[in-house]
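Recap quiz, item 2
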Amino acid sequence: MTTQEISSQVLRLLGNIAPEAGLGGIRPDVPFREQFDLDSMDMLNFVIALHKEFQIEIPEADYSKLATLESSISYLEAHQRASQ
Amino acid sequence: MQALSEFVMPHLGADMTAGTLLMWRKKPGDHVTKGEIIADVETDKADIEVEVFTSGVLEEILVTPGTKVPVGTVLAVIRQEGEAVPEKPPETARVIPMPAPVPQPGLQPLPRPSPLPAQAAGRLHVSPLARKLAGELRVDLASVTPTGPGGRITREDIEHAAHARAAAGPAPAAATAALPAPKPSEPSAPADRHARMRQTIAAAMARSKREIPHYYLSATVDLKAAMDWLTTGNLTRPVEERLLYGVLLIKAVALALREVPELNAVWNGAQLEIKPEIHVGVAISLRQGGLIAPALHHADRKTLTELMRDFRDLVQRTRAGSLRSSELSDSTITITSLGEQGVESVFGIIYPPQVALVGFGSVVERPWSVAGQVVSRPVITATLSADHRVSDGHRGGIFLRAVDRLLQTPEKL
C-alpha cells in the first residue's frame, strides 16, 4: 500500500468516527484531538478501526504514535515494512 | 374488562415541555413488544426513538406525524397482550384526557416518499424522517450540510437545503408543493437547532440554580492502583475490549450510590423519591456544541467489560442522534468529566429532578504521601454537587469516601 493509499484509508476511518469534523483541511502534523475535538473514546474507536482495517495489533503504549496523520502513516508504514 | 394502556409523549428531561411526533413505525393493528421502538419524536435537543412500555396491539393512533404536543399527551392506545379485540373502540379510549395539540405550521402529514437511489444512502448519517423528506423534496443527501449530533442529517437540514435550492432557482413541482414556507423572521435551520438546544440547556440550568440549594464537596483520589490495574489488564485484552479509566469511575460511582442511596433519587417537587435502580447519566459533549446526558442503565450491576461496551455504544449513538427515550428519561444521577480539557475540578449544576451530580477532572501527577514518603502519584479530583434539601455534607462526604475506597481495589469493581 502506498503512502497516499494509507493516508486515504486513515482519513476515511477518521471520517467514519467523526463525520461532522470536516477533514478536508486536515493539517498532517497537528494532533487529531486538537483539530477535531476528538476525545479518548474517539481515539479508542480509531485504534479499533485501524486494527480491523490493517489487521495489526496496536498496544496501548503505541497510542501516542497515532496522534497525527503524519505519525499514523509512519506507524502503519513501519508495520507494513515489518510484515514484508 | 379491556386492558388498555396509553402511549404518551414521554418526558425526556427537565428541559422538555413538548415534543413533535415525527413518525410512527407501527400502524393500527400491529403487534408491539415491550421495549420496542414504535415512534420517533423530535425534542429541542435531538430526535429520539421512543420505546413502548407494554406488549400488545396498537389499537389506535391519536396524534399524526408533524404535530407538536405537550409532554404527557396520549399519542396512541395499546390493547395489552391477551385481551380480546373489542367490537367497537372502548369508552376508555374516548375519555383519555388529551391536551389540545399544538399544530406546527408546515409540518402536516407527509405523502409517501419516493425511493432514494441506493447510492444516495452511502455512509451518510440520516434520520429516518430526514431520509423520507429528502425523497419527497428531491434533495440530494450528498449535497446537504449536516448539523445534527454526530454529523447526522436532520429534517431541518433537508428543509434548509430545499429552501436554498428554491431560492437559487426553480424547484420540481412536488418539492414546491410539500415544502413548508418559512416565516420571514425564522432563523436558518442549523442556527435554529443549535439555538433551541442552548435555550433548553439554559432553561434547565437556570431552573436548577433557582430551585435547588446546591452544596459542593471535593476530594482528591489516588488513582495509582486503578491506573496500574487498567494498564496491566489492557495488555491482554483484545483491542475491542480495552477499558478506558472513565468506566472505572462510572462503576465506582454506581457502587458508592448503594451506600448513600439518597443521592440516587429524584425530587418530585415535594419529597425525595429514592430510586431502587441505579441508572447513571453520562454527560456527552456534541462537537457542534451543547451536550446530552443519556443513561447507562443498571451501571452498578454490569461488569466493567459490559459497562465499557454499553458506554461506547451510548457515545456513538448520542453523537449519531439515535438515542432511545428511556435513555433520556431514566437517569438517577449524572456524571460529568472535563479531564480531557485539562480541567482539574468540576463543580457542576444538578440536572433536575435529580439531586446530585458527580464531576471528575483530569488525571494529574502530584506529590503524595505514602507511608511517610513523598512520592509522585496519578490523582484525580472527584466532586459532588448535591441538593441540600435531601442530603447534607456529611452524607456527601461518605459518598466521596466510598468512591475513593472503591477505586483502591479496581479488581473488585
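The longest strand of chain B covers residues 373-387.
The first helix of chain B runs from residue 91 to 95.
End of item.
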